[in-house]
UniProtKB/TrEMBL annotation:
Pfam families: Glyco_transf_20 (PF00982). This is Trehalose 6-phosphate synthase. PANTHER family: BCDNA.GH08860, TREHALOSE-6-PHOSPHATE SYNTHASE. Coiled coil: none annotated. It comes from Nesterenkonia xinjiangensis.
């Protein structure tokens, strides 16, 4: 590994690409994280002297850099206070709700933003330390939006990409953020800024035009070379660059002379490791496990499945309400129908997530108390995370997948379900407020706020003409098979390499 000269390809993400595991002899080891992003980037890392900079998940624990399966891992330490202020606070109680249509109310605290700025600088410095001359650095997601500009200041020689995995909100919502200028300038430090949906890229471009007055043409943002860095904010430093308040010169006409650099802002919808899901769905032990699941649930006619992190953006409450009303109306009957809801534990230190858990578990208990029989349950609720093998067995067991998110950057579960359904059977009910809805047009698309529409879609999914279901699933599969996460990474990195 090139310790002296640095690494040619550096990924910077809030989480490191490995999870800590307990080894057989009771010691600790590391296992590559199972997510699609790591799967897609690992081969590129191995080919090109790759390093991954990220937090290793524990507070107040310094850790030396180490190598693991062809990847150089650079842990970024966080104190307990920083986990509270940067991760649980600014990232997940300010940005997360703000970027997801204010489904929950975002909290704005100056000391949270100060921690966010400090931690972003630490990530930028760690990346600057390991990147080789002229390296490509790819920064991931909303926790690290200041990193591109900070890194550019430290290392003007490197090529910087940024990808936002969650939605980018419309200007009216984004503008609530007291540190909006810092965030925009942070992102504009990148050469290429990727978003999930066209609408996210448009939202970003509109707010850049409106707030900073930068000229934009064909996704190219012309950033003045003397633009302030992310350390300076109009609301703190005296309104120096807020055209919306009429205090800065407008730059909305095409620049005619130098003094600019170009940052491109454009959509690159992410996908899944399709081959891996298909391969697992064909494995005899996983097929046998899916049959066992159906038997254990009492061989219902229709198994509905929901798989989500336990997050208020996922519309789990809306799903339960529709299902409960269908049981009440006699349109579904326990024994003939069963809803399996996997809700994996998430962000348990954040108050809104704690309240959500109480709400969901209260609703499940109430519905099951009302409708269960001694032999059958209405909802099998599982507050666990499962390995991908078990997830694929669940996908194979489920007749209908319910994805009812109120807002979701992409929703990879929808794509995984489709990838697993090689038989062509199975129905996907999909919220139009997910990024996946832009591509999976043959799903039963619903507005999860419209409970009657959701109920009608659930009934349609349970009673659909098998030929209609197969036709839809074939078309969905074509989409997911031809656009996998490897292709997504390639397209982003090719575009980044082509930036001047
Ligand atoms: O979708 C955004 C995201 O940050 C993912 O990158 C991540 O897998 C998921 O949410 C879980 O987030 P956390 O790292 O907060 O557990």
């Amino acid at each position: 590994m090139p310790q002296q000269s640095g690494y040619d390809f550096v990924v910077v993400a809030n989480r490191l690409a490995v999870d800590r595991v307990t080894t057989e002899d009771g010691g600790t080891g590391w296992r590559r994280s199972p997510g699609g992003l790591v799967t897609a980037l690992a081969p590129i890392m191995a080919q090109s002297d790759g390093a991954w900079v990220g937090w290793h998940g524990a507070a107040d624990e310094p850790l030396e850099a180490f190598d693991h399966q062809g990847m150089h891992l650079v842990p970024v330490p966080l104190s307990e206070q920083e986990v509270e202020d940067y991760y649980e606070g600014f990232s997940n109680a300010t940005l997360w709700p703000l970027y997801h249509d204010v489904i929950a109310r975002p909290a704005f605290h100056r000391h949270w933003f100060e921690a966010y700025r400090r931690v972003n600088r630490r990530f930028a410095e760690a990346a600057a330390d390991v990147a080789a001359q002229g390296a490509t650095v790819w920064v991931q997601d909303y926790q690290l939006q200041l990193v591109p500009a900070m890194l550019r200041e430290l290392r003007p020689d490197v090529k910087i990409g940024f990808f936002n995995h969650i939605p980018f909100p419309p200007p009216g919502l984004f503008s609530q953020l007291p540190w909006r200028h810092s965030v925009l300038r942070g992102l504009l430090g990148a050469d290429l800024i990727g978003f999930q949906r066209e609408s996210d890229a448009r939202n970003f471009q509109r707010v850049v035009r409106h707030r900073l007055g930068y000229y934009i043409k064909s996704d190219q943002v012309f950033v003045p070379l003397d633009a302030p860095g992310p350390g300076e904010d109009a609301s703190v430093n005296g309104l120096h660059a807020d055209p919306a308040r009429g205090t800065a010169p407008r730059q909305l006409t095409a620049p005619t002379e130098g003094g600019f650099r170009v940052a491109e802002a454009k959509a690159f919808p992410i996908s899944i490791d399709t081959d891996k899901i298909v391969e697992l769905s064909e494995r005899p032990d996983i097929i046998a496990r899916s049959q066992q699941i159906r038997r254990e649930l009492g061989e219902p006619d229709t198994i509905f499945l929901g798989v989500d992190r336990l997050d208020y953006t996922k519309g789990i409450r809306h799903r339960l309400k529709a299902y409960e009303e269908l049981l009440r109306d006699g349109k579904l009957t326990v024994g003939e129908a069963c809803l399996v809801q996997v809700a994996s534990p998430s962000r348990e230190g954040v108050a809104s997530y704690q309240r959500l858990r109480e709400d969901i578990e209260g609703a499940v208990g109430r519905i099951n108390g009302e409708y269960d029989t001694l032999a059958h349950t209405a909802i099998r609720y599982l507050h666990h995370s499962y390995p991908v093998e078990e997830m694929v067995a669940l996908y194979l067991a489920a007749d209908v997948m319910l994805v009812t998110a109120l807002r979701d950057g992409m929703n990879l579960v929808a794509k995984e379900y489709v990838a697993a359904r090689k038989s062509g059977q199975g129905v996907l009910v999909l919220s139009e407020f997910t990024g996946a809805a832009d591509q999976l047009r043959q799903a039963l698309l619903i507005n999860p706020h419209d409970v009657d529409e959701l109920k009608a879609a659930i009934v349609k999914a349970a009673t659909i003409d098998p030929e209609d279901a197969r036709r839809r699933m074939r078309s969905l599969r074509r989409q997911v098979v031809s656009n996998n996460v490897q292709r997504w990474a390639e397209e982003f990195l090719d575009r980044l390499a082509a930036q001047p």
